[in-house]
Amino acid sequence: MTRATIATVVAFCVHATIVSACNTQKQYDINSRTLPFHNGQNGMFGDNSSVGVPLVLLPQIAGDESPACLDGSPYGFYFRPSTTGSTKWTISIEGGGWCYDEAECLTRSKMNLGTSTVWSKTGGCYCMNVNEDGSLDDTCNCLYMPYGDGASFSGFRRDVWPVPGGGNLTFRGIKNFDATMDYAFAHGLTKATEFVLTGGSAGGLSTFLHADRIADRLRKEAPQCKDIIAAPVVGYFLDHGNYAHTNNTYTNWMKYIYHMQNLTFGSDGALLPACKAAFPDAPHYCFMSPHMQQFIQTPFFMFNSKYDAWQLQNELQTEWVTKPEQDAVLQYGEDFLKQFAPVPTEGKNGAMITSCICHGCPWSSLKLANKTSYEHYADWRYGRTKGPDATHVDPRLPNGGGAIADPACKTFP
């Protein structure tokens, strides 16, 4: 992938009008106001996000393995212990796209998604532990992980990485994740009885990528934790071409990130070794949820739209104005279902797949079979549905063929 191609990618993302990759402060500010991927939220609109949760900055005492944001500043998170003595835990990961090359990462290193120097001293945190009736339990121990690395907490380079034209970057995403888990285990996670890893958008991809990593530690260090699940929200980004049939594709962007940030497999890597064995000639596939999800051992319930607004804008790269573009959107929905098809066959997983054209989707109001998304999530969590019965897919055309009128759903056509 040439730097000229990446420059085109950057230009396209900057001018996106529906959703964006959050690689400028303006994009981030708009995203924060309109989508539930920041400020303690995990991709879910709702009112149980507590406020006033203190920021904890991690010490940088491990030399070139110390946790750090893109600019080298300390990584940190917001942690609220349960006020009721609950042994339920949620760790929630912020979204915000990815920085697709060094220039974008340098820009990001000067804003909320790349430096802790501008983070608020207090924030929020949103529990994803569900009660049997489908309500969310807001008494959990809640830890919210802001985004600071630009690669879904997956890269690692010991040395700073030079930016063409000047400047340096620090890639420590997986070290940020591991150091945060170390803190959590030192502050009560060893006593957990229920654990949910969740996140929205790029945080949803992080959830797919790291569910097994934390689950392995929980089995060893929290022996009473029998319920370990993941709940990725709009993190199922397709391996898909664009409308113009050029090389300016999401898959190529992720391949560039894979090499730039030195994503690897094993103890110092964020990616699953079993996935590498399946794709030895295309290891960057293991940074993409449709390819790597089959190797996840941790049960997950995913929330996604088959007409995801971010994907239509940034992967398909169309705003569905013309009839051919609208046909391409319909085809994208069919392609989503093809790449999603293995999920319900794996037995342990569940899903709520809406036809609403959304990225910040109104999950609490979206219904299928007369149940809300959270009620389906609860049915799966408590074993009332299993296998294909735990997967709920809206078969209709965009926005329920016009029947879904929620303003969070983008108009079609």
What this model shows, in words?
Helix content is 30%, strand content 16%. With 413 residues, the chain is an alpha/beta fold. Strands 4-1-2-5-3-8-9 form a seven-stranded mixed β-sheet. A three-stranded parallel β-sheet has the order 10-11-14, with helices on one face. It has a two-stranded antiparallel ribbon with strand order 6-7. The model is unreliable at 1-19 (pLDDT under 50).
Key attributes of the depicted protein:
disordered N terminus, alpha/beta, 30% helix, seven-stranded mixed beta sheet, three-stranded parallel beta sheet, globular, 413 residues, single chain
Order of helices and strands: HHEEEHEEEEHEHEHHHEHHHEEEHEH
* Uncertain stretches of 5 or more adjacent residues: 1-19
DSSP helix fraction? 25-40%
pLDDT average, as an integer?
91
Main sheet record: 7 strands, mixed
Rg, Cα atoms, Å: 20 Å
Question: How widely separated are the two ends?
Answer: 33 Å
Derived structural class: alpha/beta
Q: What gross morphology would you assign?
A: globular
Helical segment tally? 13
Portion in beta strands: 15-25%
> What strand line-up does the widest sheet have?
4-1-2-5-3-8-9
- Total beta-strand segments: 14
Please describe the topology of this protein.
Layout: H1 3-14, H2 25-34, E1 49-57, E2 76-80, E3 88-93, H3 102-108, E4 122-126, E5 141-145, E6 161-162, E7 168-169, H4 173-186, E8 194-200, H5 202-221, E9 227-233, H6 250-260, H7 273-278, H8 289-292, E10 301-305, H9 309-314, H10 323-340, H11 342-345, E11 350-354, E12 367-368, E13 371-372, H12 373-381, E14 391-393, H13 398-401
Parallel strand pairs: 3-5, 3-8, 8-9, 10-11, 11-14
Antiparallel strand pairs: 1-2, 1-4, 2-5, 6-7, 12-13
